[in-house]
Design brief:
This protein is α/β, with parallel strands linked by helices and 292 residues long. The protein is built from 10 helices and 8 strands. The protein has one domain: 3-Layer(aba) Sandwich (Rossmann fold), CATH 3.40.50.1820. Strands 3-2-4-1-5-6-7-8 form an 8-stranded mixed beta sheet, sandwiched between helices. It is globular and about 55 Å long. The protein starts with a helix and ends with a helix. It comes from Thalassobacillus devorans. This is Alpha/beta hydrolase. Keywords: Membrane, Transmembrane, Transmembrane helix.
Length: 292
């Protein structure tokens, strides 16, 4: 009899723990649906590039937090099949950060754009977000720009867009395509159809959108005037070592001149992967987004 009571007690305890765990998981996974008004806040989404991941923007976000420019309040993960998983909730912070992570980090530009649309839809419907900023590195900048070109007025308004090292004219480095794989490579070539459509559409971007393009220049002999000529020289990578300056600044062809801003970081540390780790880039991001 005593053994049966002990066994029954253990089963009851296990059931209680299971219910509590289930409730906890439910609340963690459930969207924030309180009466909190999020219409006045402007989250900034950080979108990594080809083969990127959490490490692409983790340290930049940490540095921005250390400088009290905002707080990371949400992480959005997109599975390889396009399932959106959102973790976090918005507080009273006026400049919340959202880190976007694609599990398939070699996906096509079309798929990344569709995923961004779904993320933005959830932000508006589930969280009441009305406006956002977008920061994209490399292919993340292309995805953000292509998202803007879709002009869906039912989604949150994008106030400001920052693209860093984003190859709007493709990557002019054939060996890069020899050592890498994935659907994304089709969209990163200089003759990519999607890039041609994007750069050739003068009406791609709304008139209110402010854009900052950031390019790296690891070689001092590279200037705006000789950019196109030097990039075509044999065995010269140009720009940040992967993306030429003219390609990284290619978005200016479709952005109204009064809304376009550009910065060239001339430093041996301003490599393609080093742009989001560079202190000068931190400063430019803060000034452009929050006037800091």
């Amino acid at each position: 009899m005593f053994k049966q009571l002990i066994k029954r007690h253990k089963l009851l305890s296990l059931l209680t723990v299971s219910i509590a765990l289930g409730v906890s998981i439910f609340f963690i996974k459930s969207p924030y649906t309180s009466s909190q008004d999020n219409s006045s806040i402007t989250p900034t989404l950080f979108i990594h590039g080809y083969k990127g991941g959490p490490g692409s923007f983790n340290t930049m976000i940490d540095r921005l937090e250390d400088n009290q420019l905002g707080e990371k309040e949400m992480t959005v993960r997109v599975s390889s099949k396009g399932k959106i998983m959102m973790r976090g909730r918005f507080s009273a912070e006026q400049h919340p950060f959202i880190q976007v992570i694609f599990h398939d980090n070699r996906a096509s530009l079309t798929n990344q754009t569709l995923w961004l649309q779904e993320i933005m839809h959830k932000l508006k419907v589930d969280y009441g977000i009305q406006q956002v900023n977008l920061v994209g590195h490399s292919m993340g900048g292309l995805a953000a720009a292509n998202f803007m070109a879709q002009k869906d007025s039912s989604l949150p308004t994008v106030e400001k867009l920052i693209v860093m090292g984003s190859p709007f004219k493709g990557i002019d480095k054939e060996e890069y395509f020899d050592i890498n794989t994935g659907e994304a490579l089709t969209d990163l070539r200089p003759d990519a159809q999607l890039l041609s459509r994007l750069s050739g559409n003068k009406d791609s971007f709304p008139s209110h959108l402010k854009v900052l393009a950031i390019a790296g220049a690891i070689d001092a002999k590279y200037t705006n005037e000789n950019a196109d000529t030097i990039v075509k020289q044999k065995n010269y990578d140009g720009g940040d070592g992967l993306v030429s300056i003219s390609s990284a600044l290619g978005i200016k062809e479709v952005v109204p001149a009064n809304n376009y801003h550009e910065v060239i970081v001339r430093d041996v540390e301003a490599t393609h992967s080093g742009l989001h780790e560079h202190p000068s880039v931190d400063k430019e991001v803060a000034t452009f987004l929050w006037k800091k």
